[in-house]
Fold:
Amino acid sequence: MAFHLLERDREGGRELAGAVSTALTSVGHCRRCRMLTEEELCSICASAQRDASLLCVVESPADVIAVEQSGGFRGHYFVLMGHLSPLDGIGPEQLGMAELERLLTEGALREVILATNPTVEGDATAHYIGDMASRRGVRATRIAHGVPVGGELEFVDGGTLAHALAGRQSMG
Structure:
């Protein structure tokens, strides 16, 4: 991208630099969910149309955008800004677990949906939060993993297919 801007679009490069500079000074984190926003509360947390009894926990702001684009979730979010990774020095404190615990104890939540990535670290993070939720009487669920809609089995990797087989559900 840098080469393209230097070779063919220096004015576009200046505009991009200005936009990034503005974003760095004006974009912060929502005080409730930690999503990126220019306001104290993001538009999702500020909306009265969202289901306050559902909380979807994700690793990054990009994950919020992906879930929102699916159109299948109308609750609130909590953005961890990462996952547990002791080798990298990322523990519960770095992921905002104190803030998440506060949300769990407020009493409005009935379900926490754990939408961390299907990696060893993502699974460990989901288990940690699931235990925290269940100790407070809040139902914890994990998003399904497996064969994508419209996918063909011959093109699905073995690990994904094994996960899909293990998580199969009854049809009747």
User: Anything to note?
Assistant: Strands lie at 28-29, 36-37, 51-58, 75-79, 111-114, 139-142. Residues 29-166 form a domain with the Dna Topoisomerase Vi A Subunit; Chain: A, domain 2 fold (CATH 3.40.1360.10).
